Amino acid sequence: MNPLSKEEFLKKLKTDRDFNNRYGRKHITEGKMVLPPCHYGFQVWTRELSLEERRVLVTQEMFNQIYTAGDPSTLSNLEINQWNVATRAISLMWNQRSVDTFLGLPFNIASYGLLLEIIAKTVNMVPDELIGNLGDVHLYSNHIDQAKEQIGREPFELPTLNINTEFWPRQTDDGPLDAIAIVNGFSNDNFCKCLLEEDIQLGNYQSHPSIKAPLSN
To answer: In order along the chain (217 residues), what is the average pLDDT of each group of 10 residues?
Structure first.
């Protein structure tokens, strides 16, 4: 059998279901080809928070629950520990072989940003840096006008994210979250209600009208 040209190979992926099942994305993600999928792993690392950074985490409302006068900017690390305030920050970097800049990258950033927030909640750390290790970053020719329109818009203020942890496993009834139980639960479809839409809330979220663009593949 003569080898297929690139154009013939791509056409068969689109038109021949059996061929696509054997050589398409599903085949790649099952590890049967050398080429990795577009996303192939992420890693996290942590650093210690400074005293000043920990002081910022103690709100005036929290401070007033214990002290009758003063402000959080005078607290020591030992005093801050009364509120179970985080001692470390955590960052995440994801690896991406190929990036559709207009249609894919915004969703990728939001998805890995949410993942970082969930992990930070799990281990009681502060989400820090989000880094994309991106290869083959491209903008398709039929997305150029849409990208120009996007760039020309005035951005809104960033929203705030709140994740409800009421139903997450805890070490004790009123204690810190049980990180091991939570991570082990990721393989369980009934993990916890934090993964439901109503328990991941964006405050002050504003958006411009959507910009449509054709999917190029």
So the answer is: 73 82 60 58 94 93 87 91 92 93 92 92 94 93 95 94 85 83 72 64 92 83
Could you tell me the CA-to-CA distances from 185 to 21, 27, 117 in Å, in that order?
Answer: 30, 27, 17
Q: How far apart are CA 156 and CA 153, in angstroms?
A: 9
Residues in the chain: 217
State how far the Cα of 16 lies from the Cα of 196, in Å rounded to an integer.
Answer: 37
Q: Residues near 128 by Cβ (< 8 Å), separated by ≥ 6?
A: 47, 89, 90, 91
Residue 136's contacts (CB-CB under 8 Å, 6 or more residues apart) are 97, 98, 99
